[in-house]
Amino acid sequence: NFISAVVPPDEIGVKFDDIGALEDVKRTLNELVSLPMRRPELFSHGNLLRPCKGILLFGPPGTGKTLLAKALATEAGANFISITGSTLTSKWFGDAEKLTKALFSFASRLAPVIIFVDEVDSLLGARGGAFEHEATRRMRNEFMAAWDGLRSKDSQRILILAATNRPFDLDDAVIRRLPRRIYVDLPDGENRMKILRIFLSQENLEPGFRYDELANATEGYSGSDLKNLCIAAAYRPVQELLEEEKKKGVTGTAPSLRPLKLDDFIQAKSKVGASVAYDATSMN
Ligand code: ATP
Questions:
Q1: Where does ligand 1 bind, in terms of residues with CB under 6 Å?
Q2: What ipTM does this complex have?
Q3: Membrane-crossing residues (predicted)?
Q4: Which end of the chain is more exposed for a tag (fewer CB within 10 A), N or C?
């Protein structure tokens, strides 16, 4: 199957509240998508308020674009179809027309639906000149034709939500079809703190745990890096307990793990660093 996931809204399991920071992005997506999908009758009069057919989320890896797409489907009460550009083009060379038609007719039946196209640059990247594979070109053209061909009734309830780390690689024709482009940025200190609070809400932390110091110590970390750092830090008390048991020659004592300290996170930084050096200015 070339679709990587199809999930009904009540089974997605991610809501906007599970995403730390990105408040403006969440608000914009709510206005552009959730409201029109939940209340299409409010958007069917006149010409000014038109539901948006295509949105591009762009920004560094690990900043929560996939998470936002899933949570948006929950908030909008829409089914969620996910496809990945690179898998599509590599695995399905030659079947462009059939697959694209199947995808869009499937989506029409499932509406309201959000079609999430991750790594959209691989599927709909700039024309590759003489060396571009014929199948890639056909896939892109078929996809755009099917997208344009959505009947207006369907277009209110089918949204293409695309994500990329490489917006500058996108074809102009694709950019035009994604009239709303939303930058999903790396979190600043304040926002790192919000994200950390979500990840650590269920953990046993030392009293007075200094979230602010941890946020200051993680400049440049994406949400995904922060998650990996928290996992590495949470492992340290476990490791200590195992070493203690080994020293004493006992195993499986009723384990009582010590609370996590700020220092666990600082030490874990040597294992999990900031993964991206991203220059947003190159994306204009
Ligand atoms: P890529 O461009 O590499 O596909 P992405 O922007 O789609 O990355 P996600 O896959 O959404 O990033 O994020 C990876 C993981 O990082 C998520 O599953 C989540 O655990 C965590 N994460 C990232 N940003 C946030 C955030 N703002 N709040 C909570 N968790 C986050």
A1: 19-22, 61-67, 118, 163, 165, 195, 198, 223-224, 227
A2: 0.96
A3: none
A4: C
